[in-house]
Write a structure and sequence with these properties.
The complex is a heterotrimer. By secondary structure, chain A is mainly alpha-helical. In chain A, about 70% of the residues lie in helices and about 0% in strands. A two-stranded antiparallel ribbon of chain A has the order 2-3. In chain A, a hairpin with a 5-residue loop joins strand 2 and strand 3. In chain A, helix 5 runs parallel beside helix 10. In chain A, about 50% of the residues are buried. Chain B contains 12 helices and 14 strands. Chain B is of the alpha/beta class. Chain C is of the alpha+beta class. The radius of gyration of chain C is 24 Å and the shape is globular. The chains are: A mainly alpha, B alpha/beta, C alpha+beta. At the A-B interface, helix 1, strand 1, helix 3, helix 4 and helix 9 of A face helix 1, strand 1, strand 5, helix 3 and helix 4 of B.
């Protein structure tokens, strides 16, 4: 900075060396870097909005983001596919159960045919492996990279959306979508189950039976748990999304990670690292089907999700807040 | 090269007519602003820019001369490697709500309508009021003549409509500074004229307009000030008039008596007299062309033609950048 | 690199450090606060105390917890067997498994082995016992033959055999003149201070470095058994509580009613059907043929063995557990190294804990000893 000043002094007749050293109104880069994102501009007297309006503005941006996500045909198609899977499973089981009393039918399938609520757990156990992660990766992986790809990111930041603020909105949006996907699956499975299969008390994996109300409560816990798991995956996808300008790259990257984890699960020698992998924890929602509910397993799962969110959220922030937007 | 530096420095040192050298009177000030990208490529090299408030400032330079990188730094999209800068007297991040921008062409959500796109960007601005958004969007669309196409999906917009929508987005709020990067790119001559008229209109309201362009004619027609970039360095800046006056005008006399004419011009005190086959040229200096003509005729020199050649901004530009310039666009 | 870059990336690095710290906090806290928390005991004192504590009239105090079993025996990757095999004993040879136990005293206990979307349960309440397998939706009522006066034993060889108590007993019986015994009083298992009884083989040819049995510092309940192979810091085999509480578990853990729609079967323990008898006869027959070479930890079992027999068996019993065993054996054999010496020639299979030698003259030698020891044993005809 001082060298630049000297150059000017030599090349141009500036008023005086003292003045050229620090012109009023000029902000050194190092200082802007520090103040720009982190501090409210209290030093500068300018018509800044009162803080209360900042909060409203945040919700307004989130509303805009949600509107974009939930009106986008591609995302609605993803939700529709997720909602259709439990119906397919339910109808398939109904046909299988109706055609023959197959004594070889597995326990969980028998449970589904025997109780309307079990279809929800069955559907989750299938969908959390791949299909739900795909849907969540698409939305979260697209969040920053997609905007960068279309160039709208530069206009959002010039608006100025604020980098930390935009990232926060993007992540919350992905979390809402994750829970929306989870709720869609649960509702679709629940409705299909209620139409196709008898209601009544629910048989748990432990062989004990609980009332239908208890069963519904357990579905609610499952939705909370699976949604949290998908939110953790969304953090990973968001972090990848800040490293690329090609949305499909971030989406595919997340999917590769999920599939690698599923492969690792099949290798017994790698068992010690399994508890630390995200997809291992997705299926742990079956803890609600035990008697008593395996709260330790749910707690460990939630802690894992929290750790993933903290780690990948901060990576996304570190990357995005310092990234040169050249798209 | 030294001469160029001095020429570049001279307008900088020459204070605006008001004599007010306060930085706050400048819409944009940079000092030694430098951007070195990863990989060592220096896109902008020690840029000292001073854009006076109220001016229409043309930011000229061939493609790849660092104009867009400079604009990205001013908008807080790219972090400078070194130097100081301020926009409207503030760090760029704080000034942004009062700055409208068009950077490197329009970019919108193809599946949204024009109005919905503007609503989206308005929502991103924390200082924008939701209550007034509809009205402001309507006004902005009206201003660029897109009211009729407000409900149409962006996907179906023509290139010119897209460019105008981008300008509308830059006009969503009350702006003190408008940064327009190549605003007439992709527009037909009619659209280009409209944009120029719009810029003049905006400037008339007191808004500073910073227009980057690789089109010289555009800058000459729209701007009061200009700066010229070459390979990341600023080679000249000042008012359009001061930039052109940096070069001397020459008088050209067409005559069969070239030797006599040269002698007469010499006695008149004109510098750099060059006699050629059937013509003589010299620096005009402070002389009036009619006075030269009278002297030549008085001395019995047959004058077939007499012309004064004043340098255009293009000559200045070619002289400074040493490059051909895309004049017609 | 700009200054801000370091500040920014400091945040995820700090996050990673905190997470890493939280994962490693258990051992770290144990290391920090792990100075002698328990009074020192000699091995005899400890064993006496333990015996006294467990042989009191009420037996082991009511408790519940999670038992984890981890094996890293260095076996070649085992072939993936068909569905339902997660609970098969073979699967316990590699990887990590978890069972939950509830012990209510008075012959009341429940052992559950949760697997993904499945669970097997053994619920024993006095002379009533149920075995529940959610995978087949089958509840088996086990009747324990009255009059024996024996404590209830688990049915078929299930992983439930491997509670710390049973594993500890098994190892304790090995303690003799071939073993050095010492006691560590700074161990911690499942968050509880514990004594560790360390049994180290004296025989140099043994592959076993040491066996550690952790006894709860308060109740003397065995909490963990670890088997260390020579030259390995991690236990090759470990079974122990990862979480344990010494309170009376809820009563509903010890009652079981078959759910509606489940298949209900009955089985009587003690006169365990013809198959078990056959097995016992077969086992006795094999035992006659087994010869033991060496002493203590360096013992090597020599069994007459023909590979062709096993393959024939595999073909006839495809799909069954024996068939799976044969398939596994095939895989293991592929990784065997051919060896030869004055005793003849054969194929050697070495894992962290066990060495096996299949000689070409039809003998199988197995022992927890080094290859040198086993070839020495092969020379003893």
């Amino acid at each position: 900075m001082s060298t630049a000043d000297t150059d000017i002094g030599a090349g141009a007749p500036l008023p005086s060396p003292a003045e050229s050293r620090r012109t009023p109104g000029l902000v050194p880069v190092a200082e802007t870097m520090r103040t720009a994102e982190r501090h409210a501009p209290e030093i500068i007297a300018s018509p800044e909005p009162p803080p209360a309006r900042g909060t409203w503005a945040f919700w307004r941006l989130l509303g805009s983001e949600l509107g974009l996500t939930f009106r986008r045909p591609r995302n609605l198609e993803l939700l529709a596919v997720l909602g259709a899977v439990p119906i397919l499973i339910g109808v398939g089981l109904k046909l299988a159960a109706g055609s023959a009393d197959d004594p070889e039918m597995g326990g969980i399938l028998q449970d589904v045919a025997g109780n309307s609520l079990m279809l929800t757990f069955m559907s989750f156990s299938f969908l959390v492996l791949l299909l739900m992660p795909v849907a969540i990766s698409v939305v979260a992986g697209d969040s920053i990279a997609g905007e960068a790809g279309t160039g709208t990111l530069r206009y959002l930041l010039a608006a100025p959306a604020g980098r930390t603020r935009l990232l926060g909105v993007k992540y919350l949006n992905a979390v809402v979508f994750a829970y929306a996907a989870t709720v869609v699956v649960a509702l679709s499975a629940l409705l299909t189950g209620l139409i196709l299969f008898p209601g009544g008390s629910v048989t748990l994996l432990s062989g004990t039976t609980v009332s239908m109300a208890d069963g519904l409560l357990r579905i609610l816990i499952t939705v909370g748990y699976v949604g949290a798991g998908m939110a953790a995956l969304a953090a990973v996808a968001l972090a990848l999304s800040t490293f690329t300008e090609v949305a499909i790259g971030a989406i595919a990257g997340t999917m590769v990670l999920v599939i690698v984890c599923q492969v690792v699960r099949a290798i017994p020698d790698l068992a010690p690292i399994l508890p630390y992998l995200l997809p291992t924890r997705f299926t742990d929602f079956d803890a609600v089907l035990r008697s008593p509910i395996d709260t330790a397993s749910l707690r460990d799962g939630l802690l894992t999700f929290g750790a993933y969110i903290a780690l990948f959220g901060s990576i996304a922030w570190a990357r995005f807040s310092g990234k040169d937007i050249t798209s | 090269m030294t001469a160029v530096t001095q020429e570049a420095g001279a307008p900088f040192g020459a204070a605006p007519p008001s004599g007010d050298s306060e930085a706050a009177s400048e819409a944009i000030v940079t000092r030694g602003l430098t951007k070195r990208f990863r990989g060592g490529q220096v896109a902008v090299d020690a840029l000292d820019l001073a854009v006076p408030r109220g001016s229409v400032f043309g930011f000229l330079g061939p493609n790849g001369s660092g104009k867009t990188t400079t604009i990205r730094m001013l908008l807080g999209l790219v972090a400078p490697t070194a130097g100081e800068y301020s926009v409207l007297g503030l760090p760029p991040a704080h000034a942004l709500p009062r700055v409208g921008a068009l950077v490197e062409g329009p970019a919108f959500y193809p599946y949204l309508s024009g109005a919905a796109n503007l609503m989206r960007f308005d929502a991103a601005d924390p200082t924008a009021q939701r209550a007034t958004a509809k009205r402001r969007i309507g006004e902005a669309l009206e201003r660029v003549g897109l009211s009729a196409a407000a409900g149409k999906r962006y996907r179906n917009y023509s290139l010119g409509m897209r460019q105008r929508l981008a300008i509308a987005a830059a006009l969503l709020g009350p702006r003190e500074l408008l940064i327009l990067d190549e605003p007439t790119n992709g527009l037909d001559p009619q659209g280009t004229r409209e944009v120029r008229a719009l810029v003049r209109e905006i400037a008339a309201d007191g808004t500073t307009v910073f227009v980057s362009s690789h089109l010289l004619g555009e800058v000459e027609q729209m701007c009061t000030h200009a700066a010229i970039m070459r390979t990341g360095k600023l080679v000249a800046q000042g008012t359009i008039a001061s930039l052109s006056s940096g070069r001397v005008a020459r008088v050209k006399v067409e005559t069969p008596d070239a030797a006599d004419a040269a002698r007469v011009l010499g006695t008149l005190g004109l510098a750099d007299v060059r006699a050629g086959d059937g013509e003589v040229t010299a620096e005009l200096g402070g002389h009036a062309p009619e006075e030269i003509n009278a002297a030549l005729v008085g001395q019995g020199v047959a004058v077939r033609g007499l012309a004064v050649e004043r340098p255009s901004l293009e000559d200045v530009f070619v002289g400074l950048t040493g490059e051909g310039f895309d004049v017609d666009g | 690199m700009r200054r801000g870059t370091f500040v920014r990336w400091g945040v995820p690095i700090a996050a990673a450090a905190v997470i890493g710290g939280a994962i490693g906090a258990g051992p770290v806290i144990a290391a920090v606060s792990g100075d002698p928390v328990l009074p020192e005991r000699s091995a005899e004192q400890l064993l006496a105390d333990a015996a006294a504590a467990t042989s009191k009239s009420q037996g082991i105090a009511p408790m519940s917890g999670t038992v984890q079993q981890t094996a890293s025996l260095g076996l070649p990757a085992l072939p993936q067997t068909g569905g339902g095999s997660a609970t098969s004993p073979l699967s316990l040879l590699s990887g990590s498994h978890e069972v939950k136990v509830w012990y209510g005293g008075d012959e009341k206990f429940r052992v559950a082995m949760p697997t993904q979307l499945n669970e097997t349960n053994l619920v024993v309440n006095g002379d009533q016992a149920w075995y529940w397998d959610s995978a087949t939706n089958t509840a088996t009522k086990l009747t324990i033959k009255a009059g024996d006066g024996q404590k209830p034993v688990t049915p078929t060889p299930q992983p439930t055999d491997l509670t710390p108590q049973q594993a500890a007993q098994r190892v304790l019986s090995e303690v003799d003149e071939h073993t050095t015994v010492r006691v560590i009083n700074t161990a911690e298992v499942a968050g509880r201070p514990a004594y560790q009884l360390v049994l180290a083989p004296k025989a140099e040819g043994s592959l076993v470095q040491e066996v550690r049995i952790a006894l709860d510092g308060e109740t003397y309940v065995p909490l963990q058994v670890q088997l260390f192979a020579k030259g390995s810091a991690e236990p090759a085999y470990q079974v122990g509580f990862t979480q344990v509480t010494f309170t009376q578990p809820a009563a509903e853990n010890f009652t079981f009613t078959p759910p509606p729609g489940a298949k209900v079967e009955e089985a009587t323990l003690g006169e365990d059907g013809e198959k078990a008898e056959e097995r016992a006869e077969h086992a006795a027959g094999v035992a006659d043929k087994v010869k033991v070479v060496g002493e203590g930890w360096a013992r090597v079992a020599v069994v007459p063995f023909k590979l062709s027999d096993l393959q024939a068996q595999a073909q006839s019993q495809d799909g069954s557990d024996e068939g799976n065993a044969a398939a596994m054996f095939d895989t293991v054999l592929k990784s065997a190294t051919p060896v030869s010496g004055t005793w003849g020639s054969g194929k050697l299979i070495k894992t962290k804990l066990v060495t096996a030698l299949l000689t070409d003259d039809g003998r199988l030698l197995v022992g927890a000893v080094t290859p040198e020891e086993i070839t020495k044993a092969a020379g003893v005809k």
